[in-house]
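User: Study the chain.
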Amino acid sequence: MRALYCMDNSGENKTTSLEEKILALTRELIAERLKSQSESPFIPGKSAIPYAGRVYGPEEVEAAVKSSLDFWLTLGGEGAAFERELGEYLGRRHVLLVNSGSSANLLAFAALTSKKIDRPIEAGSEVITVAAGFPTTVNPIIQHGCVPVFV
């Protein structure tokens, strides 16, 4: 914890945790934002219904701010703990976090081409994929020398 040493009115040294103040203000800000979002009335035929979006609460934002304050902008303590706990929950020795679904798709396809598995996908193989999807669905197929077949 980072601490600021300052003098109070009596002249005594007082330790104040700047990080705790920042995190408390973060919790307060997110609580206000979430409250104002939940107070918006739903009006059938007028209100937008998002098909996707972020799902988060004060705990997730606080963890992100704490990681930023520690300047862990990549996999840090929070991510490593999540990998470990998810592995325990799933009963798996290895869990790997990635930054996006696109990266996950690339790693999954790479695993399917590994010589360490039975009947890996080989270069030149035709791979069925969706015709209307993200380019990152097709890219791993091409990167591994396979031929996408659009359905």
